[in-house]
Amino acid sequence: MAPEPTTVDARPPAPGRPVPRRPATRRAARSRGPLLAFLLTSGALCAAWVARGTYPFGDTGRALNDQANQYVPFHRALWDLVHGRAAGDLLFTWRGGFGQQFLSDYHTYLGNPFSWTAVLVPREHVDLAVFAITPVTMGTAAAVMTVYLGMLNPGPWWQRGVLGATYGLCGWALSDASYVPMWLWGLVALPMLGIAVEWCLQERRWPGVALLVALAWLGNFYTAMMATMAACILLAIRMITRDMTGRLGVPPDGVRGKLRALWRAATGAATGILLTLPLLLPSFLSSGAAQPTRAAAFDPVRIEVFLSGMLPATHLWGGRPRLYVASLGLILAGAFVLNTGVARRTRLVWAAAIVLVAASFQFPPTQFVWHGLAVPNGNPYRETFVFSAMVVIVAWLALANRPRPRHLALALALLVAATCVLRRTDDFGGWTWPAVLGGGSVSLLALVLLRLGEKRRFLIPVAAALMIGVVFAESTVAAAGADARRARERWAKPVTTSSRSIGNHFEAVRKVAGWPAYRTDSGAPQSSHNDALALRAEGPQYYSSYLPEATYRALEPLGYGFKNDGRTFFGAANPVLDAIFSIGARVRPGTAPGSWTASKFPAPPLVTVRTGPYTSPNPADSVYARQENVLGATVYQVPPVTRGGTATRPTYAARCTPGSEAYWYSPALYGTVRAGGTREPVQSRTTGVTPLGPVPASGRVDVTVQTRTKDAYAGEHPLGCLDRPALDTVVRHLTTTGATSVRPGSHTIGATLPTPAGGTAVIATTAIPGWHCSAPLKPFHGLLAVDLPAGTDAFSCTFTPKGLTPGLAGATLALMLLIGVKSTTLRRSHRV
After folding, report:
1. Integer Cα distance of 125 and 137 in angstroms
2. pTM for this entry
3. Do residues 306 and 321 touch, judged by C-beta distance below 8 A?
4. How many Å is the maximal CA-CA distance in the chain?
5. Cα 578 from Cα 597, distance rounded (Å)
6. How many percent of the chain have pLDDT more than 70?
7. Which is it for strands 100-101 and 700-707: parallel, antiparallel or unpaired?
8. Rg (CA), the chain
């Protein structure tokens, strides 16, 4: 009996493998596979958008969930930053949340290198550039996977390109990450790190290993972490299944060769991650200081639902695992374990690894590890692209080693049987049967023709056309089906990110902009949760996973609306809050559809001075008293209210000074508030302090709340009546005694004060971690404030993200090591 082959590389070439060529021709041939994978992947995704009539190929909105609320606004902020229109820099932004760190947001939301394409188009087309990032990144992932497959086992470029495309079009990419540009970089990172693994095994290009790791982690540390864990698995598999040899053909040395590969991998990974430390460490520390969320514990789905996620063209509802690749890849992967052209040890190790990886997705402790020891806030199966990558790899090892038609037919039969068994799963996809029966049959035919092409060469182009066509068609319907099905979920309803109304809103903000003399609030209704970034305003609107707990603790007691457990803040049309935060202009909807109007009003400067402590005489547990404590003056009347009405239609009555302005705050109610001719929606904590209009001459304020919540409680003091003349007096006083000159820089602020000042200088921004001032910091209701000794006439503050300095030191050390190693290598090569 012939000995069993020890590596897959030892097998004879597959049909259609090119004959030796000249170097330039070989280089051109090497680029064909990645190019085919890129075009096939991006083309299938765009074809799905065309079929759905999705923007820019139709009128259906493309932006889903956070794509509209975060990614498009953050890319518009990047455009402003690059073109010199930003109020801030890479470290800090004065736009949104009354001033927030920006470095961690950049690393998380803008780290995908293709995000920089957004700065190359006119600002009004930034959203189109954001949408284009998806097919470009998925295509790049497919191209890099094609290169990696060639390093694992040589084979025809077009076959590698087709299987590379099945990876770029895997279920995770189509159903989970197609609208998340930064996560998609993890799809590129995994095969990129696989290439780094091969270089470690070959004892080549250690600097290249470090740079590939750095490139992976610069894109997005969350999915890069998962890709790095996958690379560790790939390294272990390859060391078990591959004979370790020294350089220049030195015979195998077993353990020593494995240790050298491990050392190169470990040092390369550490050096690459250190290079990203100026971004990684501040992001990690910002995450720890962020407003916490109530993420639920991991609850694995039922086994039949989990297995359904492996079927082609499925889209499971909600936070379910999407593990599939196109039927061509599944059939080849199924035939892999039967392919005697591959060493038995190789087949067993790869099969066991894939099973264990899949099982780890269902086991809470290992799921916890996959997600960086944190419970994910959202879909708990964000690492499933690792499984799809491994399926594609074994599919390629099977294809490159001439799978037998009967093994392929058996794999298709098992796929059909599994589909039949799982067809009654709760959310079994409507496109699954066509993909299994239609796509599977065409895939089997193509693979059989490819095998027959060993003797009948004219069949190879037919097989190639069928393989390319079936992956393109099946992936197109899978992508379109995922979009259509996902759009039925409330959270994923597509929205518009460019329109006449949004353009008018932007222009209205620009007309009244006065930064840094005063802030402009972009108003409501909002186009996104980050309108301040998107529209170049400076209001409280901000939505980020890094919104500090300090900002939440400062803004929530003052009556600003919020959601997402306090990581998203909204505006509030309240004059007292305007005075506190130096808001001097606001934009509101006009009378004509899609129109906006703007108004300007007096506002104190960004830096004001308080000469002593102040405690409001109004009830301490009311939002109005908390506002007065920060303002430093009494401007509200907070009357007792009489409750009546019914459980779902309660009424409230109170008496205030005629001519004052009534305001309402009831964060526990959801419904509609009516008072006189005013009708305003209240949506629990999402709605902040709400204006009800002037108090009538009778002095009686009657409020009716229509709510679906029985026995909902509005609080003891939901009503406050504002004395506008008193507030105007306070604003004039704060302006007179405040800073005579305020100089906000990109991440600094300086102020000149009346002499002698003394007291406390209050800066209209929240006291988030990272501020350092020339005067001692002083607590002041969550706002940034400094203590001013008598005679002080100026001070300055600088914001530096925590972790930036040690991060720069670590990156410098890694860069010096990288340069040293490369220089040593070059000197040795010159000596030789």
Report:
1. 19
2. 0.93
3. yes
4. 106
5. 18
6. 95
7. unpaired
8. 31
